Structure formats: C-alpha cells, structure tokens
Amino acid sequence: MVISRIVKCRILCRSCALQLFLNYKTMQGAGYANALLPLLKKSSSRESDTAKAASFINGHPVFSSIALGAIAKRLHDEPQLSHDEMAEWKRELSTPLGAIGDTLIWEKFKPLLVVIAATLLLSMRNATATTWMVVLLSIWGLYNLSLHFFRSWGFDRGSELGSRVMELALHPGLTAARRALRALALVAAAGLVSVSIVSMDFAVSNLIAFGAGFLIIIVSRKLRLGAFTAIFLALAAGLLLHYLALTT
Amino acid sequence: MAALAGAVVHLDTSVIGQTLIGQPIIACTLYGWIAGRPEVGLFFGILFELLWLANLQIGAAKFAEGNLGAIIATITACEVAPSGVTGEPAWIVLLLCFALGMIFAQIGREISPFTRRVMIGIADRFVLACAEGREMSLRGWTLAAFGLHAAVGAGFVVIGLLAGRAMLRLYFGEFYALGPGDAIVNSTDNVLSGMWPALLGAGAGAALLQLVSKRDWMKWALVAAVFTGGALIW
Questions:
Q1: Which residues contact B204 (CB under 8 A, 6 or more apart)?
Q2: Is residue A66 within 8 Å of residue A157, measured between CB atoms?
Q3: Model ipTM?
Q4: Do residues B176 and B80 touch, judged by C-beta distance below 8 A?
Q5: B231/A contact by beta carbon, under 8 A
Q6: pLDDT tens across B31-75, in order?
Q7: pTM score > 0.90 for this model?
Q8: Which residue has the higher pLDDT, B151 or B181?
C-alpha cells in the first residue's frame, strides 16, 4: 500500500483532532475515522471501512499515528477482515498504545520540558517579559517538533507493519528513550530545586516555607492524600512557618 | 478575552493538538503578557504548572481541570490593580485567586464526563455521515463537536471569572479593579508572603515525585546539592 505524502500529511493533521469526538462508547473511534477520512473517501467499501475505522480504540494521541498507519494498511490489504476481528484487534492495540505513550510522553517528556521551562523562567525572573515569551516559545517549538517527527515516523512504521504493529513495543529505541528521559528528568528536577532555593536569596523564612511545602507534598503521596488536600496543607504549613520564622 | 482564553485552553488541553499552549506555564504567562500583567501570569503559570504535574488525563478517569483553574486565577488576578503600597500584586489577591483557581479546577472534574456523554450522539452521527459520504453533514457535526468544547471551556472560565469578581468585591468591599486598600495590604502582606516559597516547595516536591523514581532519589539529592553549592560559590 502506498500512501502519498499529501494524503499522509492530511491524515496526520487530522489526527491532531483525534479527541474531538471523544466519548464513552467508542472513545477515540470517531476521531480515527475523522483522521482516516482522506483514505475512506477513496475506499470502494466506504461504509464497511468507516465502521471498522470508527470502532472502539483508546490510546495516547501522539502514538495514534502508529495505529493510524497500521489500520490504514489493514483496511487496504485485508478487505476480508470482519468488523468484529478489526474491533478486537484495535482493543488489543489500545493497551500498549496507551501505556507506552502515557509513560513516555505524559509522565516523562512533557513534565520534563515544563520543569525545564519553569527552571529557566525562575532563573530569569528579572528579565523582560519578552525574554520569558522567547523561552516559552522555544520549549513549545521543541515539544511540538519532536512530536511531529515522531508522528510521521510512527505512521510510516505502522503502515509498514500492519497487523504486526505491536512488534514496535519491543523497539530498542524505546529503552534508549526511557533511559535518556530518566537521566534528564533527574537533572531537571534537581535543577528546579536548586534554582528555587537560589531565587529566594537563601532567606531563612523562605527556605523554611519552601521545605515545609516540599516535605508535605512528599509525605502526602505516601499517605495517599488527594492533590487538593495536599496542596492546601502545604500552603497552610508554609504560611504558618514562614510567619513564625519572620516574627521570632 | 477571558472566554477566548478559556476556549483555547480547554481545546488544547484535551481536544485538539495538545500542543502545550493550554498548559499553565504558557497560557497564564501569555495571558498576563497580553493583559499587561506579565508578573501575575508568570506567578500562576509556574505554580500551577508544577502543582498539577501529577494531574494526568488518562483514559476514562475523571481529572481536575487544572489548566482551566489556572487561567481563571490568572484572569481574575490580572483584573486587580497592583497594590498602592508595594506597586506589585498584593499577596492577599494572589492567595484568593489561587484558591479560586484550585476550587474551579475541582469543580471542572465534571466537565469531561459531561462532554463525553453528549459526544456519544454527535460521534455516532458523524460516523454515519462519514459512512454515507455526506460531506456537508460531516462538516456540520465536526463544527458541532468543536463548538461544544469551545463553549464549555469559554463558559466555564467566564463563570469562574464572575465568581472571582464577586469574591474580591465581597472581600475588599469596593470596586475590585482599584485593588485592596492600604490597610488590608499592610496587615496581610507579611503573613501571606510565605505563599510563594511554600507553593514553590510543593511544586518542586511534585516535580520530584513525577520525574524521579524512588530508587534515584539519592542521585537526585546529590545533583541538587552540587547545583546549589555551585550556585552559592558563583
């Protein structure tokens, strides 16, 4: 199956709206049908292919490019595939798509970049607002360019592998990416603490409040407190200790 | 502008693109910059971004609408004039707006279940139109879906802003845009100035929990000590 660059580009652009029709019945199913519309329009069995494309599936929006390529290949190469077989295969695909995408991007890559952004902005808090916007634009560009290249790569791999697309879960690049993100995340989290402490000019009252907020969040995770409760506890403790440190 | 900000934040957070523009660190800072209060935008942008690091929107789970809460806090605070005493946003204003943002983030947990239930009907009709090749219907249902999300985001932020205005007016007892009075600032700024380090500490803790697994905490502490020591020397 050969997909022209223009059609691939249209599919990938439309995949950015994968969650436009997100619903409890088919989750991203309708979004997949929307993304694959440039191919479905040319299909000789449009009704059947649309139903297959729109059946239940849920995964990370960026990793969806892999699934889109694989689904496109199967729709083209396996017209005899029944709706139920396609639906079953898509359900099986949902778990690794979601798990790998969520752990890599939502839990590591995105938080890593925003922590780097926060650290840079804290260190440049005396700079002009225009400088802040340049920093944010750079982070935004880095994030979106990386994901754009991944989407393009993912679609190509998916459309090569088709039904064997789950082999990508064993791709050596995943392990390398996890290692790299782990190292970078450690440095970024350490950098944030360091810059935060320096930004408070080592004032004792500020350091005490900072420490209180920090420890309460760590302990509240152990105690399984909700985020809302933990944040307000951290705020209350920090305010109290800060005030006591100022007045004693 | 508040409605537009709400629509953009909600659409980018979970509907179209997820390009980071809806994240507090970009949305709040950008809004503050446009509104002429960049320091307010940066304040909420950094704090909410770090505090919501573990607020992940995964699968069918309910989640706090942290991004919408953050933009509500920013928009409300940007409407309050800087304190006549310090020339900066008074801490009491920042604290009240922060609380407003947190509360609305929690209320926002009901947004995604609502839109996902409504979207069942729209998605079904879209898929039917797609299967039957009805181009005009396709566009119509796409616009309907887009419009629903945009309206929900915009409406939620406007309601949050109105609630914020009512809260500040009640608290300060005068037209909120003039800012809190000198007496209020003088009596509260000292006590409440600990808000920034406390929440920054909480955010740094959230970053540690999200980014670093427990087995790497010793390495993290070592690197942080080296960085801080280096900064001290420098």
A1: A189, A192, A193, A196, A210, A213, A214, B50
A2: yes
A3: 0.91
A4: yes
A5: yes
A6: 999 999 999 999 999 999 999 986 655 555 567 788 999 999 999
A7: yes
A8: B151
- Cα separation, B80 vs B43, in Å, equals 15
Confidence of residue B81 (pLDDT cuts 50, 70, 90): confident
- Count of residues in chain B: 234
Q: What is the dihedral of CA B32, B38, B43, B48, to 10 degrees?
A: 30
DSSP helix, strand, coil percent of chain B (3-state; round to 5): 80, 0, 20
Give phi and psi for B85, each to the nearest 5: -80, -50
CA distance B81 to B90: 9
A127 vs A131: CA distance, rounded Å: 6
Q: Using CB atoms, pick whichever of A51, A136, A221 lies closest to residue B131.
A: A51
Give every residue of chain A whose pLDDT is below 70, as ranges.
Answer: 1
Contact A216 B202 (CB under 8 A): yes
Do residues B57 and B77 lie in contact, with contact meaning Cβ atoms separated by under 8 Å?
Answer: no
Looking at the complex, report in whole angstroms how far the Cα of residue B74 sits from the nearest Cα belonging to chain A. 16
Separation of CA B10 from chain center: 10
Is residue B175 scored above 70 in pLDDT?
no
Distance from C-alpha of A117 to C-alpha of A192, rounded to nearest angstrom:
10
